[in-house]
What we know:
4 helices, alpha+beta
Amino acid sequence: MSNFYQLSATDLTGQNFEFSQLAGKVVLIVNTASRCGFTPQYQGLQTLFEKYQDKGLVIIGFPCNQFGQQEPDENDKIGEFCQINYGVGFPIMAKIDVNGEQTHPVYQFLKSQIHGKGILTDNIKWNFTKFLIDRNGDVANRYAPTTKPEALASEIEKYL
């Protein structure tokens, strides 16, 4: 896959989410987990989404249970958790793998586009790794789980 807009994923309700609908938008993709020390970042992500969605920002969460088994719930429970605890209004996809043989095509693409940002490996190291995609569908940057969403505001503004 050589084009971000050719990708798709399944959302929490089992519906196909075509990335072609994101053409011309700035997209922040995050692998998430509801039982992680970084889980409160959902609030910061929601704040960014509310602040910039009218200017063209879309945030997409991809729950993943590959790190410390910190996302053990089924998709319906993940959605409930995000809504009840953080008021998440941005799209959350169905649970996926971000590393290994079953790596979702979205993460295969993201990791192939920005080599070396994983420090010694292109693999995702933990929950809440973030990828920023510009309006042309190019991966602009990758951020560590420790990078708080609010720290991304100035870079997001640059691409909006």
